[in-house]
Amino acid sequence: DAAGATITAGGIEDGAQTAFFDAATTITLDEAGHAFDLVRLDGTDATLAETTSDTAFGGATVATGNLTVISGGTITDVLGASITAGGVENNVEVASFSAGGAVTLDNAAANNYDMLNFVAGTTATIVENSNMTLNGASSWGAAADASLSAAGDIEDFGVSSITGGNLLLLATGGIGTADTLNITVVNVAARHDTGLLDITDTAGGLTVTTVLGVAGILDTALGTAVSARVVALSPLTIAANVTEAGAVLLQSDDSTVDLGPPGTDNITVNTGITVLSMGSSVSLQAGDSIDLQGTA
């Protein structure tokens, strides 16, 4: 449809609700400030675009092929709405989101996220009111922010990769408890509660710092002896406090084993920064050097 055209279904004016599309070639819908509710895009790849305004999902949007969402503003869905792509129920798979503003997906169930790419979005936020599972390659801009929040655990089971600029991880359970959460980002911050934190940055080095107003890494249930393990391939810089009830392991892997250049497998703890275990040990393991600066 042309920009400015409207499709109304299910008795709702100016919205695409309870609509079914089946085509052998790409389906492109370009709306003008309307919500997508109960739209099924079957048989091919699909593009949903709001080129002049914000984009909202108010119900179930299903695409059996690849799904691309383009917005001139923000992309949001209401709690309870769902976006399914790639023919996998309750998943966002092979989906690409491009926005001039923030991208926010808020899901009520324990969903899996596969091939979730935030293209040119300034901030990407995924909220799960249950466990969150990352099964494929998810990415966003190198200078952009992403927040993953779960009322439970955040897991990837060793088959995903998360690539981007700044990453905030928030979990009421653990992060990477079953298998280390693989990331390739510049900066990270995290909060976890009843489960341990285990993250590995696979390339380019990592800084623990402030992301989206949240500083460092904290076990929010300090009465529970959960631990944190942060590994970088390399180097690793600690620019904000790390506080755990249990053991803390900070590791910058040796380039004789991994692919980083020699002499850069360092751990730096900036001046004024604290790495603290309330009831166990703190271990710093570097392939080259450990630099505790100033009053660190």
Instruction: Determine the fraction of residues in helical runs and give it as a percent range.
Output: under 10%
Largest sheet: 18 strands, parallel
Structural class designation: mainly beta
**Low-confidence spans: pLDDT under 50, at least 5 residues?**
11-16
Task: Quickly list its features.
single chain; 296 residues; mainly beta; 18-stranded parallel sheet; 14-stranded parallel sheet; 0% helix; 51% strand; elongated
Written overview of the protein:
This protein has 296 residues and is an all-beta fold. 0% of the residues lie in helices and 51% in strands. The protein contains no helices and 34 strands. The protein has strands spanning 16-22, 27-30, 35-42, 46-50, 55-57, 60-63, 67-71, 75-77, 82-85, 91-99, 102-107, 112-119, 123-128, 132-134, 137-140, 145-150, 154-155, 161-163, 166-171, 181-184, 187-192, 197-201, 206-208, 210-211, 214-215, 217-219, 228-232, 236-238, 242-244, 248-252, 267-269, 275-277, 282-286, 290-292. The strands form three sheets. It has an 18-stranded parallel sheet that branches. The termini are far apart. Residues 11-16 have low confidence and may be disordered.
